[in-house]
Each structure stands twice: as structure tokens, then as C-alpha cells.
Amino acid sequence: MRLQPFGLWAASVLLFLTSAQARGRKDTVVIVSFRSDQVKDRSAQNDETLHNGFEQYLKGRNITYKPRFRFKDVRMPLGSSLALSNETDVPKLYGYPAVEQVEIIQNGPSAAFERRVRKQSESSSSAPSAHRAHFPPRAVSVPAQTDTYAPHVMVGADKLHNEGSFGANIKVAVLDTGLDYTHPAFGNCYGKPGCTVVGGYSFVSDDNTITLSTDPRPNCDDYGIKSSWGHGTHVAGVIGAQDNVRNFTGIAPKALISAYRIASCTGISAPDVAAAAIVKAYQDGMDIISMSFSFESGWQQAFVARIVSTVVSLGTPVVLAMGNSGESGMFSPTSPTVAKGAFSVASVQNKELTGYTFAIKSSNSKSSPNAAKVNTTVSSYLSTNPINMTSSLPVYVSSKTVNNPDDSCNDYPDSTPNLAKYVVLIGAAKNCFLTIQIFRAQAKGAKYILYYSDTSSELVYADQFVDPFDDTQAGTISNADGVRIAKMVAYGYKVTLDFSGPKSVVIPNTVTGGLMGIYSEYSPSWTVGGLPGAAGVGGLVLSTWPVNAGSYQILTGTSFSTPMVAGAMALYRSIRGYAETPEQLNAVFTTTAKPLPYSRNSTLLNTVAQSGGGLIDVYRAVKSTSRVWPYQLLLNDTHNFNGSQKLTISNVGTQAQTYTLGHLPAGTAYSQDGSGEGNYLAGHIANVAQDQAGVKFNPASVTIAPGRSQDVQVVFTAPNADPAKLAVYSGYGPAEVNPGLRNAHGAVPRCGGGLLEHQDNQDDGG
């Protein structure tokens, strides 16, 4: 049931003024921040004095606008967002004395949204207890058997599940595209005792009209944009699904999810919408806020970043996606990931992939056409769902050249037969999108497509690139199988493929499994901060999808590693409670994470600028008896080098512990080409074992009694790197702990950069 805008909430908490916001409008949308010292009355939670005065000012200056949001909670940054009819009116807004800052914002897809692959080959106080809203306990039946789901095993959640911990009754806000709570994995219910999705709110309609509703479920069947409107359903499943069809759960299947819809069916959102949802989630008493959206701004002064920092300071952890523009190079920060106290999440590739069996049948009709022996080989393909085919079909090879970089990038020739009666074999192309390749085949009637990757690239699920309402089915096979089939056809063999009676199989990801995704965004920010806290598993992750579009999907991006970390924090909170502040929680997860190798055959660690602390280990986090502060050491640039810093190590265990400190350098990444002209390098940034900082600890070993702390001085020596390459160097300060878990409090990541003061960062923060 679709609900109408809910006016009571708008009147009591945050005034949201709806407008007939037409799609494609040309208005200039701005967020106007008010000076906090102008608030006259702090006795009430909300103060609209400045907002009323501002609108009177606009009226007096004949400034035409449409109101969007009023941010009036006096605990938060105050402001208004509005759509100006005339962009030339922007400077006039500063005429109102209380105006502190004006941001021009854009509606657009999130920087953290799942990317479309071009080259397929490729110290704050805790929140008061009164803030915690009460929800009825959720009765969830979780599997009695051992958890073997690969993403959970990779981050240590399986061990906590096997001990009986599932994040019970921790309230997690999911800010996204809304979600389909009719999915059986969410209990097919909303807002009732026993439901997974206990509440939520919607800020936008399906067509991106700003509309308030208490129903966060999207109704996007007519849009067919596969990577957008099901996004929130997938994200929520990573946290709290309890699925009996595919036999997997979310990482915190007893958590209570509230869904806050901030994006349209096509994935369009805006910073003021996100800011409004963050405020609402905090006011609703959420324990953890997870948002897989970010926007192109690298400054902490951005309004949405200031909202995040404030919510964190008030006691609610905020977990954010770093973004998926890793292939654009370094120094591409987003907001609100740069917000102080936020926990930004990078993405690691899944080690195990979902697939199904199929049969390759071949006969050499040339040598003996009438008595050709049929050879049958059983192999496997990657797909979210098995290909539904009841009979064998012959193979049509789209290109006579194996591993053709232009395979299916152009229209098929007129002589091409009707491909509805074939399985079309398409190879990885370097010069067009997979969506284009599929479209070219569909134009000739293709209903079944097998895609084979090249030997060095990330694996992709071809079925991700088919519209959910098409009747085309697709799967991905190995390069070896693809080349073999193509060559057999070229040699004159009769080759048919049989997809009947498929068996579900787990396919090891031997190419990228356990490594950073090349798409995962790089830090640092323009102020040499904004590092990821750590990484979760976000590459090739199976989760829930809207029922009308197939119920399940396998997707890739920091959008999906983020809810994994948020869910892991829910597990932690359910076991360890709420005594630790959000930033202390961040510290635990960063310093107990596992640093990652740069590549499969390398001992060099991946740069902290991309991986933060490494892959989270929630089991280690829960069991850790040590704490360290700060949890990241920011060395700044060469001119402002912060070479002497202090670490405080605390023993929160019950026995004395000895800590031996060490130096673990990570790969150095060069962000510029060395020409001296400030040209930033695009593409996946190579890591090298040179131009690394020197590190000394004093003392190098300490014994700390239970309940006590010890300061350690850390002195860094900057490398003598070529300034024209703008090197970003990083590493870890690991501690061997005896007795107790090895690396029980893990390692403190650090990061520094070359000379930045002369670089043009294309933004002045205004």
C-alpha cells in the first residue's frame, strides 16, 4: 500500500515543504547554512526563527524559489534548502545576516553507487539512554548449522554466529533507495512485531518528486533500471536477510532495520535529502546509521558532512560508502565520507562465487557426419539464478577472433540468423560496455547469452547487465571455457549447450578473491585526511532483490561492503553494549582489521589510502582486550609534515599484557605522472615498495597492567620522494601482544603525502 505524505512528522521534527518538482527542471538547488550563534531560543528542540526571517528576506528581495527542507533541530547545523528559479540570485542570499554558507548542490546518482564496468576485463559523548527508541524484540529463526557463507567467514562473523550472536534488537538505519519488505527474507511485513523492517520513511517519490511518506517501499516496476531501484533491498539484505531459498542470512539477521528512502527509481538523490534522512534517523533513535550514498565534495564544511559529524558527536555511529571511482585515481574525495567521526568503508572482493552447472556437448561432424561421437563435459557458469532452458541449443560465436577487443561492440551483420534458437557466446571487449554487447545480440533476437572474461580481469556477472524485465538470460564462463568453445566451433565441431538440471556450485574466485576491488575509492582528501576506516566484502555479493525483479542479485561496490560493516557493528553492540563512543567503536574496527596484500602474488601491502585498516575482523574486534588511540595517524603533506605523534595503548583485559611495536610499510602510490604539470594518474594506481616513511617507537615494547594505559611516542621520517609524482606513502604500526590474541588490537594505519600546497584541487571548499 502506498501511503500519502505524513504531515505530523513534518510539523514536529523537520519541516519539509513539498513542491511540484518536475523531472528535468532547471532550478538551482542550494543549501543555506545559518550561523549557530544566531539561535535565540535553545530551550526547545526546534527553532524556526532564522528560517522564517530568511524567507521574509527572500520575499522582500523578490527572489523566486521553491522550499525543500528546513533543518531546525538546534542540536544540529541549522539551515534551509531551496530551489532558486534564477541562479544569479545565489549571491543575494548572503545578504541575510544569519547566513554562514551557501552550497549549490546537484541531483544525481551517488558516487557510491554500483559502477558500470567499462572494461569488463578489468572523542564524543554517548547518546543519552532516552534517545534509544523501543521496538518489540524480533523473533527470528536462524540456521542451527555452522555459518559457512564466504563473506561472513572472511570477516569473522561466522564465529560469532556459531556462538549464538546475531545482532539482536540493534536498530540499524538504511539510507538508500528504499526496500522491498515484501521479500520473504524480510518476513513479508513492515512495521509490525516480528518484522525485519520495523520502520522507515520516504523523502522522494519514484520519479524524484520530493514527497514525504511513511512507506519506504519503491514502486519501480516500469523503470527497468536494474542497478538503481533494487539497490536498497540488496543493501538491507546484507545486514538482516533471513533467506530460506538460497540459505543465507545477513550479517546481523536479528537486527531491526528502518529504511529511509532518499533516492528515486533511477537512483537520483541530493545532499539535502540525505541530510534530512540522517537527522530523521537520529531523531528516531537508531543505534547505527548506514548510508551507501556519497556526493562529489571533498570538504568537511559541506552541510551533509557537518550533519554527519554532529550526529556522531551526539552518540550515533555513521557508516558510509567510500565510493566506486577508484579507477579515476587518487584525491577524488566525496562527502560525507570526509566528515569527522564517520566510518568510511572500502570494498574487498568475495572469495567464493555463486554458480551453476551446465553441459558442453560436442561432436566432430567433419570427420564422421553420420556417426560422430558426442563428447559431454560438465562445467560451470556464474549467474545469480540458473538459466532456464529445457533443451540443448547450438552455439553462435559472435566473433571469429578469440578475445576480440571489439567483440559485439557494433551491429551484427545482416547475414546473422535469428539468434533466439542459439546460445550466443560473447567475449570480453575492451572498447565498449557489456550492456552494449548484450544489446547488439538482443537486436538479432538473442535470448541466451554466455560471456567469457579475459584472463586478468575482475569477474563480472553478465546477468547483472540484463534488464530484469527482459526475457534474455545470461551467464559468465571462464576464459578457458569460452576460448575452447569458440575454437571448437571454428574447427567445425557441432557444439550444443545444455542448461537443464542445473546444480548449484560454489566457484572459488582465484583472480580477485580477498583483494581490494579496483573500483574502491582512494583517499586522501584534499587536506590529507578522509581515510577509509576499513573494508568489508562488497565485491560479487549475493543478496536480496525486489521480488518482482527476481528476488536475488549479485552486485559489486562499496555500497555493499558498507552494510556489512554496519551489520558487524550491530553484532559488536549486541555483545559489548553501548559504553564506547562512535569514534571509539571506529578505533576498535580499524585497529583489529587485517591489512591486505596489493596483489595475489605480492607480499607488498595495499596502500592505506585505499584499504584503510584492511578487511574488518568482527570476531577479533569483539574479543580484543586492547584499545589504541588515535586509530589513524595522519602525517599531512611534506610542507606541513606531522612527524612526531603519540599513541595511547590501553589494556581493557583482566591480565597484564606486553606489547611489542613494529613497522609494517604499505605500498607507495604515486598520484601524478611526474611531469610537474599536476597531471593526476587515472586507472588502478600501482603500489611500489619505495619512497616509504621511516618509523621509530619509544618505547618499542611496553607492559601494561589491567585497566591501565601507556603512551608511546612515534617519530616518522618522510621519504625523499619526487615531488612531481605526489607520492602517498602509508603503512601500519602493528603490535604483537603476549599473552592473548596475536595482533589483538591489530595495527594503526598511517598515511602521508607529498607537497600539496601548490596543487590545484579545483575546489575552494565554498
UniProtKB/TrEMBL annotation:
The active site is at 176 (charge relay system), 231 (charge relay system), 559 (charge relay system). GO terms for cellular component: extracellular space; membrane. Residues 167-596 form the Peptidase S8/S53 domain. Residues 1-22 form the signal peptide. Residues 117-138 are annotated as: Disordered. The keyword Transport does not apply. GO terms for biological process: proteolysis. One of its GO terms (molecular function) is serine-type endopeptidase activity. Residues 635-732 form the C5a peptidase/Subtilisin-like protease SBT2-like Fn3-like domain. InterPro entries: C5a/SBT2-like_Fn3, Peptidase_S8/S53_dom, Peptidase_S8/S53_dom_sf, Peptidase_S8_Asp-AS, Peptidase_S8_His-AS, Peptidase_S8_Ser-AS, Peptidase_S8_subtilisin-like, Peptidase_S8_subtilisin-rel. Belongs to the peptidase S8 family. PANTHER family: PEPTIDASE S8, SERIN ENDOPEPTIDASE. This is Peptidase S8/S53 domain-containing protein. It comes from Tilletia caries (wheat bunt fungus). The lineage of its organism: Eukaryota, Fungi, Dikarya, Basidiomycota, Ustilaginomycotina.
